[in-house]
Write the structure tokens for this entry.
Amino acid sequence: MKYRCIIFDLDGTLADTIPDIAQAMNRALAEEGFATVDEAAYSAMVGWGIRRLAELALPPSARTEEAVKRIAARAERVYHENPLVRTKVYPGMAGIAGALAEKHIKTAVLSNKPDEVTRSVVNGLFPPGSFGAIRGGRPGIPLKPDPFAVMEILAELDRVPRDTVFAGDSEIDMRTARESGCFPLGVSWGYRPRSVLEEAGAAVIVDSPAALLSFMLEDGFVPHGKSGTGGAP
């Protein structure tokens, strides 16, 4: 096997978290007297962290530093209280960490959502010990696409970028992969269109968890069309 480690994005990659994220942000907006945002619109807005999400959810004319800070803090509190009401693991992803572990491939999760919430979501959706490391956003630590947290995870797992895949559904994840030297693997079932992943430099895009597992195990993986173009970054 060429790759001995995989770092997963969370939102849009391992699980569909939009319903609970939208509920938390919309509640924060409503309580502060702003109009709510249609749930479907959040798919294009998530991924950059709670502060950026608050900024995008506010009307352009209301995006002051104070308003963004206030909305972000309120939404984070609401989300932390109710992170798993409607969130679901994507079909086929529940057992993927275990299948990889059987082949001695180390796994981790890196999200831009707050660290405590990230751990609550992952530990609430997956069996204990599914991932060797779980990281979210932490004070003083730059968010993706900065490579700092990736390097921190790899040091903990005793792996290096050249034998690691970074799997995600957004341009943020593909940039994270490339800036850290990991292999950029896009997943097509998440929140961004395939074209966004291609433009962001995905070397391979898989259309199912089974294809992702096949790629990691190099077990007869056959790329299809444009989703398989490219090679190592």
Summary: Strands lie at 5-8, 15-16, 88-89, 106-114, 133-137, 164-168, 183-187, 204-206.
